[in-house]
Design brief:
By secondary structure, the chain is an alpha/beta fold. It is built from 26 helices and 21 strands. An eight-stranded mixed beta barrel has the order 13-14-16-17-18-19-20-21, surrounded by five helices. The chain has a five-stranded antiparallel beta sheet with strand order 2-1-5-4-3. Strand 3 and strand 4 form a beta hairpin. Helix 2 runs antiparallel to helix 3, helix 12 packs antiparallel against helix 13 and helix 16 packs across helix 18. The protein is extended, with a radius of gyration of 38 Å. It starts with 13 loop residues before the first helix and ends with a helix.
Amino acid sequence: MSQPDPVPDSRPDSRHAGRARELLARKWAYLLSGVAVIPLSAEELDAELRGCLDALCSAVTGDPLDAAAVELVGERVVALGYVGEDGLRRTAEVLGKGLPALPEFQPVDAHAERIALVIGALATGFLTANRRAVFEQQERMQLSLLKAVRDARWNLRQTQARFDEVVTSSASGVMVVDLDGRLVRTNRALGDILGLEAAELVDASLFDLVHPDTVGMLRQAMRAAVEGRLDRVRQSQRLLRRNGDVARISLTASLLRDAEGAPSHFVAVVEDGTELMLLQGELNRQALHDVLTGLPNRQFFGTHLESAVRRADPAHGVTLLHLDLDAFGMVCDGLGRRAGEQLLVHVARRLKSVVALEKAMVARFDGDEFGILVENTAGTPDIATIAAAVNRELAEPVYVDGHGLALSASIGVARGTSRDQDPTELLRAADQALRRARTGRRGQWELFDPGRDLADRTAHALAVGMPGAWEQGEITVRYRPVVRLADGAVAGVEAVLHWDREGGEVPHGRIVELAEKTGLILPLGEWLLDTAGHRVQWWRNGFTGPLTVALTAHQASDADLVSRVVRVLERTGLPADRLVVGIPVAAAAVPEAADNLGVLAEMGVRTSLDDFGLGPDDLAAARALEVDAVRVAGRLADLRAATAGALVPALRDSGVVVTVDGITAVGQAARWRDAGAHLATGPHFGPDRPAAEFRSDL
């Protein structure tokens, strides 16, 4: 590693030295957070490590060197979180390179030995604290195991007590039966079912209580369970009551085994058939209706929809409305869940009143979503009238816990006009229409559009197929020339994505748009940067211009963006000042994106605001973020010369490089050159090309 030339009889400027320490502490934080689990924010970690670095620097210059204090710094680093051997390795690497490069330690030869001693003492403290942490963890684990054993014993006693309580209080008859059918233990409910006292059941035989016509079936089933041919016995049986009546019951018996695994007893549960039928009916009703509002649920609604479509009037069909309450989450967050539930009950009543005169079903789907199915007739109101009536009813305030509440609903509408129509597809169509209705709006309704749906489904299919295409090598990196307007020379290169598929080529902009929707943009963007970085380094003998990579808004605000860039620079060896990273100007207002841009700039990476509109807000953003360049949006390539000439100088005066995207003709290039722009890209300068073709033209 080359060292800076010493400057005799000079002291480093304190502000410069402080800035150098700050950058070294920040780099230490980046690298350490990548290999350690530290429950601190980036700002908190920066501050902690800056304090550690200050202590180390003081130790280097202290006389004598206080090794104990340095070891305490190592212990302090370990205390930040789970910092293992990788954390020590990264710490030693960054300080081994960073401390000798600090201005305050120049000439480095005069401080090299003490720096080495400080790092060694730091490692000693680090290892001591790490070993102590391991011992403490082992001790805590041993205590936890002892507590777990104690809790398990207590839980066993509690479980046995609860079991006794459940058996005693159960409404179902419960009995423990030995392998010969003798009743060992019963609960009171069994006596109630049979009309017998508990004393009369002691030592009785289960087979004497079963009707003679079915006792043989029970004996065979229990024998099969003992022999391992049945897991458990389930039968509808008839038991004999005291008065000679027959109790129709459902009997379930499970085999119990002893400690050696041999069959020992049966535990049987007897449920009265009459109560069971009533319970089954109630369960069926609950399975098909929403408990809160009493409305049919989605399952019942779907079944009803199938029959309604089949019997629909061919001339009028059916209308399906899928509703979503606007701002319902705000009610729950602000007033609590109970207020939200009361409001849902109110909405259910209002929706039923809207279609009370129609042959219609109102159902609650999930959360704050409802469905309305109208079987149309000649007198059914049109969709706009029904939708307006829904929002008019919901706009009438209802008082919940003293608060007057009113909502609106976004509504997706689908029409069923054929008896052969798939009900599932009709539900999907209404759901798709609802998604469009609530995009950026409230209280609106949208009718399903088959044409727009086909375009959306095509785009979705393209998006979900992108990971496979990337893995198969169909998605590649191409290179776009960045041209100097003054003389037409290639001044840099922009890396873009290209998808060569059977249905036609997919350009960079479309790939990025689709990848944003699926979340693929983050790994795909890192791969683009890594691939292009390696390629540009391979060109370094004949090409020294910068590599430009444009980020999306999602990438710009990614919490791991800086780490991704650091990894790529380390893997490729690309110097930071040869990389230009651009973010959309619209993302500049997002704090995470602005912070990422600032950190990259401090690392030496060049920064740019893309899709620049030349408006006052865009100009203010460029000045506030102190970017190196702006890229004028391609839609402004035809901007009048007078307008461009008035705005570009303001940027040039700030030292910002102005690049213009989307240049398609020589006249446009000349106009922007005369206006003062520096660089340009676009079809006029040639197509995006594979690496080999681009390199051959340099």
